[in-house]
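Q: Please design a sequence for this.
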């Protein structure tokens, strides 16, 4: 009986292994097929340029810092919250996203109370993208996404004027003119995310880099590289190294 059981065991295990979708689930990585850290940084910077909406994650301050008129539930001190917000690549240093901060908004109240800020983005292929090679091509799990970790700092009025930051921002978000600094609705101010760390997930691990991108590498990417890069689904995209 034992030899028969052993034979059945070997049959079923070998069959299961043979049928596993190795191209998707395998952890085996061919280095030559995976974009380098710098190429991944270029992809991330292109996504930053193409998009203009991201999720800002902050942490609630200790309860003793709650504003008296805020109806906030108890025991939220130290709890993270993620909320979408507008941004644009308008800063004279384009690796630092520009934000029109609304003082009453939770993300910026938390930031003013000392919270660090994480901005999370993901790539959205154009609506007229070419047909998929398979069911995984445009799967969200196979598309790049990343997070920028840092803190918020105000942009001086002199920089706003010198670099036409307001005009740049309103080109991406025309409706945001309603809450520009000095408006009659909410107090607002120009801010930038000072990026200190970058975490990148380029897609499936057998074809994309996953891990930290050194901030110096993030800053080193040139605008020429950003403009010439192409992501999956864009016209001119080349499958090799996703560039």
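A: Design:
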């Amino acid at each position: 009986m034992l030899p028969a059981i052993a034979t059945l065991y070997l049959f079923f295990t070998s069959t299961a292994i043979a049928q596993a979708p190795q191209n998707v689930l395998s952890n085996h990585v061919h280095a030559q097929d995976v974009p380098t850290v710098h190429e991944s940084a270029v992809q991330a910077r292109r996504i930053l340029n193409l998009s203009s909406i991201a999720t800002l994650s902050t942490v609630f301050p200790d309860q003793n810092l709650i504003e008296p008129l805020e109806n906030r539930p108890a025991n939220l001190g130290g709890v993270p919250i993620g909320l979408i917000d507008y941004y644009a690549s308008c800063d004279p240093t384009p690796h630092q996203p520009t934000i029109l901060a609304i003082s009453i908004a939770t993300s910026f109240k938390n930031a003013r109370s000392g919270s660090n800020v994480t901005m999370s983005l993901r790539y959205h292929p154009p609506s007229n993208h070419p047909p998929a090679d398979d069911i995984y091509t445009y799967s969200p799990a196979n598309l790049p996404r990343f997070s920028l970790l840092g803190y918020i700092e105000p942009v001086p009025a002199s920089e706003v004027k010198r670099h036409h930051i307001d005009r740049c921002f309103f080109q991406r978000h025309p409706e945001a003119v309603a809450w520009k600094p000095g408006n009659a609705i909410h107090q607002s101010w120009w801010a930038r995310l000072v990026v200190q760390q970058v975490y990148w997930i380029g897609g499936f691990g057998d074809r994309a880099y996953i891990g930290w991108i050194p901030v110096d590498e993030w800053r080193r990417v040139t605008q020429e590289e950003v403009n010439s890069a192409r992501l999956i689904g864009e016209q001119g995209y080349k499958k090799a190294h996703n560039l």
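Q: Thanks. Anything notable?
A: The radius of gyration is 23 Å. Residues 2-19 form the longest helix (18 residues).
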